[in-house]
Design goal:
1425 residues, alpha+beta, 5-stranded antiparallel β-sheet, 48 helices, 40 strands
């Protein structure tokens, strides 16, 4: 009876019955609501009744039509007509419903009309949050006769409880208030108009255990937007009879869980969600009008007991929530958890309550934590937990743990200090203060989802989630399709891409950690994946110079992982920006990966980028220019210019081909150093190519223009001119703004919108109106340039008004000697309107006077050259590139290090770079940088000089803190520690020791033991005074209280902290001023021109990494002056001195940080010693004192070693210098914040000297942990990889991956090197590409990692090749090598089987050797070897 109006009205009125406790106003409101509900119910019932009748009408019509069609078919088949009774019955049924109307078949139009009548109405709930401004829209759905809500739309997907993976995303602009939280646009998801389609529902209930009761399964869609998606995906929820929810671990193969990217493991927790109602207890409407909160508590579980362990192991895929397969097993369960195959609740670990950071008050700590971690992931996957169980909604628990399941991160909140520590990166905590520094913000500009962490030493790190997919704004779905490029669309972060997250599913670490150097000058990417991700961010942030410099770190010759592959593909997906700098950065990335193109093939059109780069090279920032060698290689590899016949069809091909031919000659060492007249037609010249339809450049025919002005038709077609003369001269920014506006909109001789037409230019030429950028500029020259930009109207219509006006201006520009006598414009109008009509005397007077003046000067004008074509030169003489770059700076590619062979650098006294002594102008970057050398008392000349020997000797009184004690105990005190100089055994009488080899071995062993004994007995080690031996420590342990000594260590620690902070601040200031000084253009006009060119990208700017790298170059000073020609010898000296002091200060700050850590460890040990009492001793007193003594000795030695550390690569300097040092060692210490040990320096020096200079081999043995992989091998690669030698690091196979990762991390910043891997075995086919790749690695100063098996296989293959050559020679086969156009060709002369040919060369020795004969020497370089 749902279509009965009376019945429907009765049911609607029952929903608004009066309660006993209702007051008068409430009853009045209910009465109105009841009346409205009754009216709507009747209306809906009548509509349903009509819809039923219409549906029955259509069914009857369909039945009649079907019966008639069936009858016709039977007639056509000869089967007879349908019985009259059946047809009559159908017609009778039709007549009953249609009451005599003619039947109609169900057409498409009728179906659409019927569908239109059935409208789906959906109840929506809209939640609006004020701060941050967000709108959430829910659908209210019926399921099992209960109403649920589900989130269908959110204006900010990052600040809601749920966002479907793969859902429709679109860009959502933020308001001004929200921009303070995140300067980037947000992503909105979902469809607010999504309807609820009626469908049958199935309610699943279970009753497994008495403790559980009856439970109803809750589908995930009804929790969307109510609980965080991370919990909804990880748990299966059931609802109890009291409306509370219980969440059990979800199966690991749950598609929804895997789609979220959350790594599934055997869950060891369960959730309980208690619904706490607020306000009214009941909601009789069923529309969710009762307010309630959900208290979510997480309980840790023990491992399953032995009774259910079997079932759990069988159903391991359920993540611990195993299924009971029989009723008997369920009946025997002792608890609800056992019935589900779970362990019991762990009483040793406290439960935790979930906190809602989304709705937290603005000033609360919970809100701050939510905003802090919202940069790493959406709030739907940021879970903030508090220890304990909240008893009510009014409780205010304190955040304790923050977990981000999708990013696989966890953090712990210190309740006392409020510090947030990372549990996945031990020792790092969130640095909120450092993240707000301007320098750090600029360094991380374009990385909005970076969380800054800080270690105990003050070092900063940027944590970036790998789960956030960087996309262009126009990549997401939006109502209006954007046609702009990525450069204007900005960046969005999509954290819900299923494919992106799927490629990260197998990783334990789903974030990138970028170390920020202590000077805050640069960020390093230690892994290939982090470098590729940073490259994507740099492109989207339009930081093309940084992307250009990062290219060297984005190379790998091993198969890419799914994570790396999707990042490489993402670079291709965003490669739509045609900015010249973006094109240059992509082209360089393609160049550095060309050697590994089979693995890292570019996913973008490199050929178009190559052509676009050379066509628009003049618009490329100087810091993004390729070097000449790179340009030539790019043309040869990527340009694809085609043949001479098809070159005209390629845009700019002729210009690219000309540059290619010029570079091939100019890069040769024997190229001419200067251009000599008559050299254009020699071998050192380039035959220039020009386009077939190139328009001829011409000089204006001034004589003809004067004749046209003298004609009688000059005044025939004058029109209106617009001119608004400025009241005063236009100078400075106003002039630049006016000129830019006129050029953007286009200039018109009749005035136009900007009134910068004929009269404006005429007054600038004649000097009556000054429009200049600077006061000393010439308005005539500026007007001449603007006249040259005007379109020559005489070409289209020589008699037009614009052509005549342009003729006057061109005559004045071509004949400057006429300008002083030209008539001046005088506006004599009473009302000076903008528009000047043709008939006004003010214009006629001026133009008549101009015509008359030019007529009187016809004799002088006639001597000017007539119109002539400017033909391009057919050839151009070549000059060697380094000489050419001295004249034409656009040929330079600054910022490249030519070599790393600089042996020593000197540190000078502050007085040597004093501004007054050098005569530097005051208040300039150079003078300020020079003053910095002697302005800090804690880092004066004495402190800097100490950095060459013992860095902390000048800052601390080390003699009162550290004592040198013997490293070994005396023999009489401990006989077991005695070191003897003789062998502990005598094997000389053994019969096997009689041989010559055995005697030599025994002699060598005896010498080694004697040497070791001498070394050990004389060796000393530093220890803290008062804690240097057992006796001193025993006195400390047995004293009344060691608190006094602990306070001394605490005071020392405080002093070390203050020194460290001062050194770090000095290093940052020195870094900043060294860059400013290197970019200083000086005073005067030339300095301003240089600064303007550098700001415009015409000249490259120096950066700190470049200054540090130049310390390693033997021609670094020259490179610096080439980068900035405004720097003289004084400027270079200042820049070098400040850079060296910045490195020394940063290195000392790092040493002080290690001292602080060691002092803190010693202080904690002394605290334990001072608080130990006999009542709490676990061991006996003697044993306890032995343990404490050993720990105190260990901590004392560690602190003393750090305090007394020395620098072993500095040398005593001359009186004019403080000291000299090897820059490669200092730079290595600076980059990695470490101090090189004496043994490390000696080993590196010996190996490098013996290998590079003497050419001999050496073997050095080092203990584990002595720095073989992290220090010695990278330093040797730095010294030996000089472009002339190939450096191969050979390590065991088990260490190959670690070595490659360490090399990549070491050479990821400042000194960038590519790291390759050499794979070779006996089955490898030798191809020319292998040799070419190794030669490319040598030329690029790269490092090649290999295993011993690879090297052995190469040697065996070489020996086999020699053996085959010798065998062929013995069989009468001779090798013949010829040289034809630099291409080697190897042929064989057959013996009796073919015609004999005289060999070009003969072999005099049967044994082939690359150094003995010409034949074998050529053969070793032939293609295919």
């Amino acid at each position: 009876d749902d279509d009965d109006p009376d019945r429907a009205a009765e049911q609607a009125a029952a929903q608004y019955e009066d309660d006993e406790d209702d007051d008068g106003p409430t009853k009045a409101l209910k009465a109105k609501a009841r009346e409205r509900a009754v009216k709507e119910a009747r209306k809906e019932a009548l509509k349903r009744s009509k819809d039923k009748q219409a549906a029955a009408h259509q069914r009857a019509a369909a039945a009649v039509a079907a019966a008639e069609l069936k009858n016709e078919e039977r007639k056509s088949q000869g089967g007879g007509a349908e019985t009259v009774d059946s047809l009559a019955a159908a017609r009778k049924k039709k007549g009953k419903w249609f009451k005599g109307k003619a039947p109609s078949s169900p057409s498409k139009k009728g179906a659409e009309a019927a569908e239109e009548k059935v409208k789906i109405r959906t109840l929506k709930e809209v939640v609006v949050l004020k701060d941050p401004p967000t709108v959430h829209i829910y659908n209210v759905m019926e399921y099992g006769r209960r109403y649920y809500r589900t989130l269908v739309y959110s204006s900010d997907a990052s600040r809601c409880m749920h966002c479907e993976g793969g859902a429709a995303l679109r860009a959502s602009p933020r308001t001004l208030a929200a921009s303070e939280v995140d300067a980037y646009n947000a992503l909105a998801f979902g469809d607010a108009s999504r309807p609820v389609v009626p469908r049958p529902t199935l309610v699943v209930t279970r009753n497994l255990h008495a403790a559980l009761g009856v439970q109803h399964y809750v589908p995930k869609r009804f929790l969307a937007g109510l609980l965080p998606a991370a919990l909804v995906d990880a748990y299966v929820f059931w609802q109890n009879d009291d409306d509370s929810l219980v969440g059990y671990p979800a199966p690991v193969d749950d598609e929804d869980a895997l789609g979220s990217g959350v790594k599934k493991e055997a869950a060891s927790t369960k959730l309980e969600v208690k619904v706490v109602k607020i306000g009214r207890d009941h909601d009789k409407t069923g529309m969710g009008h009762a307010n309630a909160l959900g208290l979510v508590v997480r309980y840790p579980l023990l491992p399953p007991t032995t009774t259910n362990a079997t079932t759990s192991s069988e159903n391991n895929k359920t993540g611990g929530a195993s299924k009971k397969t029989t009723d008997a097993q369920i009946a025997t369960a002792q608890s609800a958890e056992e019935a589900l195959g779970l362990g019991a609740v762990d009483p040793s670990r406290p439960p935790q309550t979930l906190l809602n950071a989304l709705l937290a008050p603005k000033t609360s700590s919970l809100r701050a934590i939510g905003e802090l971690f919202a940069v790493l992931d959406d709030l739907s996957h940021v879970l903030v937990w508090a220890d304990g169980v909240a008893t009510s909604a009014a409780a205010a628990p304190v955040p304790k743990t923050v977990t981000l399941p999708r990013v696989a991160l966890s953090f712990d909140v210190d309740e006392k200090t409020g510090a947030i520590w990372s549990l996945d990166q031990p020792g790092l905590r969130v640095a909120t203060d450092a993240a707000n520094e301007a320098t750090v913000k600029e360094l991380l500009r374009g990385i909005p989802h970076a969380l800054v962490l800080e270690d105990a030493d003050g070092g900063l790190h940027a944590m970036v989630p790998a789960t956030a997919k960087p996309i262009r704004k126009d990549e997401v779905q939006s109502a209006k399709t954007s046609s702009h490029l990525a450069a204007t669309d900005g960046m969005l972060l999509d954290r819900r891409d299923d494919e992106w997250l799927g490629n990260l599913a197998g990783l334990d670490v789903r974030h990138y950690l970028y170390p920020i150097h202590a000077t805050l000058a640069f960020v390093s990417a230690p892994t290939l994946a982090s470098a590729l991700y940073l490259m994507v961010l740099r492109f989207l942030a339009r930081r093309y110079v940084d992307a250009f410099r990062l290219a060297e770190s984005c190379v790998a010759d091993t198969p890419l992982t799914p994570e790396e592959a999707q990042l490489w593909a993402r670079i291709g997906a965003i490669a739509v920006d045609d900015d010249p700098d973006a094109v240059a950065a992509r082209l360089r990335l393609a160049l550095v990966t060309f050697a590994v193109h089979d693995i890292m093939e570019p996913r973008w059109d490199v050929r178009s980028d190559c052509r676009a780069y050379f066509v628009r090279r003049d618009h490329v920032d100087a810091s993004c220019r390729l070097s000449p060698d790179e340009e030539l290689r790019a043309i040869d590899v990527f340009a694809d210019l085609g043949s001479e016949q098809t070159m005209d069809h390629v845009g700019g091909a002729w210009a690219i081909a000309n540059r290619r031919d010029y570079l091939r000659l100019a890069l040769r060492r024997d190229a001419p150093t200067e251009r000599v007249k008559g050299q254009e037609n020699t071998a050192w010249s380039v035959l220039m190519r020009w386009p077939a339809h190139r328009p001829e450049a011409y000089a204006p025919d001034v004589v003809s223009k004067v004749i046209s002005l003298d004609s009688k038709s000059f005044w025939s077609n004058f029109s209106t001119i617009s001119y608004n003369r400025p009241e005063n001269d236009v100078v400075g920014p106003a002039a630049a703004q006016k000129l830019c506006g006129a050029l953007d909109r286009g200039m018109e001789l009749t005035g136009g919108k900007d009134s910068m037409g004929f009269l404006y230019l005429y007054e600038m030429i004649t000097g009556t109106l000054r429009t200049v950028i600077r006061n000393e500029d010439s308005p005539y020259l500026l007007a001449s340039y603007l006249v040259g930009l005007q379109k020559d109207a005489s070409l289209a219509n020589p008699t037009s008004f614009s052509a005549k006006l342009l003729s006057i201006l061109e005559i004045a520009v071509a004949a400057p000697f006429l300008v002083p006598g030209m008539p001046k414009f005088d506006d004599t109008r009473k009302f000076k309107l903008t528009t000047i009509v043709a008939g006004q005397n003010v214009t006629q007077t001026l133009l008549k006077n101009v015509q008359h003046y030019f007529s009187t000067k016809r004799a002088e004008i006639s001597r000017l050259p007539r119109k002539h074509a400017i033909k391009p030169p057919p050839t151009i003489a070549v000059v060697r590139l380094d000489k050419l770059a001295d004249v034409a700076r656009t040929w330079r590619a600054p910022g490249r290090v030519n070599d790393l062979d600089n042996g020593l650098r000197a540190v000078h006294k502050a007085g040597d770079v004093d501004p007054s002594r050098l005569g530097l102008p005051p208040q300039t970057p150079l003078s300020e940088a020079a003053l910095l050398c002697g302005s800090r008392p804690h880092f004066d000349d004495d402190a800097v000089a100490a950095c060459g020997d013992q860095p902390l000797a000048a800052a601390l009184d080390l003699t009162s803190l550290v004592a040198e004690v013997p490293a070994k105990k005396k023999a009489d005190a401990d006989k077991s520690a005695k070191v003897t100089a003789a062998l502990p055994f005598d094997a000389s009488k053994h019969r096997a020791a009689k041989t010559h080899v055995a005697k030599q071995m025994l002699e060598r062993l005896s010498a080694d033991v004697a040497e070791f004994a001498s070394y050990e007995t004389s060796r000393t080690k530093p220890m803290m005074k008062g804690l240097s031996n057992d006796a001193e420590i025993d006195r400390l342990l047995h004293s009344a209280s060691p608190e006094a000594f602990r306070k001394g260590i605490s005071a020392l620690k405080s002093k070390l902290v203050s020194l460290r902070d001062a050194d770090a601040a000095y290093a940052r200031d020195a870094t900043l001023w060294s860059v400013r000084a290197a970019n200083d253009g000086g005073a005067g006009k030339a300095g301003l021109v240089w600064t303007l060119a550098r700001r415009a990208g015409l000249e490259a700017s120096a950066w700190f990494e470049f200054l540090v790298e130049q310390l390693l170059s033997s021609r670094g000073d020259k490179d610096l002056t080439e980068l900035n020609p405004r720097l003289d010898v004084r400027g270079v000296a200042v820049v070098r001195e400040v850079t060296c002091r910045a490195l020394l200060a940063a290195s000392r700050a790092a040493q002080l940080s290690r001292c602080v850590a060691a002092a803190g460890a010693l202080e904690k040990t002394l605290v334990v010693v001072s608080t130990t009492t006999p009542s709490n001793k676990v061991l006996e007193e003697e044993d306890q004192n032995g343990v404490q003594r050993a720990e105190v000795l260990l901590r004392s030695g560690a602190l003393a070693e750090q305090l007394s550390a020395k620098r072993y690569y500095a040398e005593t300097a001359s009186p004019q210098e403080l000291f000299s040092f090897e820059p490669r060692f200092l730079v290595f210490e600076f980059v990695w914040n470490l101090s090189l040990r004496k043994a490390q320096v000696q080993i590196v020096r010996n190996l490098a000297t013996d290998s590079e200079e003497r050419g001999v081999s050496r073997v050095k043995q080092m203990l584990m942990g002595a720095g073989k992989t992290t220090v010695v091998a990278p330093l040797l690669a730095l010294m030996l990889a000089n472009g002339r030698s190939l450096v191969v690091s050979i390590v065991p196979k088990a260490l190959l991956e670690m070595t490659r990762a360490q090399m990549r991390a070491t050479f990821s910043t400042i000194i960038t090197k590519r790291v390759y891997t050499l794979h070779f075995d006996r089955s490898t086919v030798i191809k020319p590409a292998l040799r070419l790749s190794l030669e490319a690695a040598r030329d690029a100063r790269a490092v090649v990692c290999a295993t011993p098996t690879t090297i052995k296989s190469i040697m065996l293959a070489y020996v086999e090749s020699l053996q085959r050559c010798r065998d062929d020679d013995h069989r009468g086969l001779a090798l013949v090598v010829s040289n034809n156009n630099n291409k080697h060709r190897v042929t064989r002369r057959l013996g009796d089987n073919g015609p004999e040919q005289a060999p070009l060369t003969t072999t005099t020795k049967k044994k082939l050797s690359p150094t003995t004969t010409t034949t074998t020497k050529d053969w070793s370089t032939a293609e295919g070897q």
